[in-house]
Amino acid sequence: MSGAEAEPVDLPKPARKAGLLEKFHIVRGHLGADTGVFVTAQYVGEGRLDKHTLYPALTLLLQQHRALSTQVHDAGTEQPFYVSLKIVDLSRIVRFYDADSKQLSEVAESYLLDQIEYATDTPLWRLGVFPDNRVIIHYDHSIGDGQSGLAFHRSLLTALNSTSPSQDEPSSVVPIPESLELQPTVEKATDVSLSFFKICQEIFNAFAPIRWRKAGSSWTGEEVTRQETMFTSTRLWSLPPEQADSLLKICRLHECTITSFLHTATVMVFSTLLRDSPKRYKYLASDIPISLRRFTKAPADVFCDHVSAGYFFSPITRYPPELVDDFEALAKRFPWEDAARTTSDLRKKVPKCRQEVGTLNLLFGRYQPFFRGKIGKKRHGTFELSNVGPFPFDKSDNEAGRKWKVGEMFFGQCDALLGATIKLDDVLAQFFVDHFRSLVEAILKQAQ
């Protein structure tokens, strides 16, 4: 007697294997140590962003960007891979909030606490929409770097300006063209091989006692917690456009970039906060992400995970106690020469930063033991400073006559379990933000 024939299963279409950096982010997410990135944007235009306006624009995006219709399978193995979804149901990934975005930081925190699950029939991103037309996208780090958030908002802005609101109830189910493909991996798009010096450096860092290195005398806060938690606190702060322009002019005057200025200001604020720390701490360990798109030729308006980083050890300056809360005095003593030097050092690191991705080959696929080995150990850094670049990319994005424009934007990410200290301590974060804001305001006031 023959049994009934099984119904055919409509499995998602395999796309490609995850690359070195993508595996790094996938495994970290699988272990609950990375919940992704968020980028918010305030849209200004005709009416309200509801389903009738937003769904037609999102449909256009989904039919152009494969990363927005992608999932990950075998995340817990040595070789995860991407699959292509045939449809995307917007009603399952887009949420419309009832209240305006006054509580945006709390909403951002909720997104960073929410792990986007792998191996499901929904893609690796979520969208929140507020009545005041603030839009927040939260996406898994394996499909996009920080600049991918800007790419999403630019693509959405273009789509809103090229589509019309639906007169009928819009369909939430979007069919995806099979011809769409993911961007290539970093190692496919550019050379990430290691120089002999880099190999020797990595061997030294792996086996030499930490006290022999600057990392051993760097203050990086508490050890990596043994408790599996992704609790993180978010602080959002922005400068008015006129102050941002003034700060940019001040930086140009002192031959430094906004990024190096912010890095130097962060070091200065941390130095004031750590004035009473043990003398064995001499440095602050930091990293600045560097986009690899200039090497991989990935356009600025696509989703991809093409990023590396430059690493720095900055001396802790023991400021006199009377200067700790005297921001006017600190502004006068601001080390602009350090900011200029950081600008120069960062530019020198750019040509070699591709090798940082190549170092992942030295794990020989053993990502999980690598991450688990960090539990209970010293953190790798004090802080991370990300500059995802300007928005809009060109003036045409916000030119006069467009139905929609983009105003204020915020960026954030979560790496609370294994990441730098500033992402971990709630009290320290608030104290840091307050002092950082006061220092920048004092520098702007001094320049008037």
Automatic annotation (TrEMBL):
Record's Pfam families? AATase
| InterPro entries attached to this UniProt entry | Alcohol_O-acetyltransferase, Atf2/Sli1-like, CAT-like_dom_sf
Against SUPFAM superfamilies, the record matches this protein to:
CoA-dependent acyltransferases
| Residues that span the membrane, as ranges | none
Protein name as annotated: Alcohol acetyltransferase
Q: What is the organism lineage in this UniProt record?
A: Eukaryota, Fungi, Dikarya, Basidiomycota, Agaricomycotina
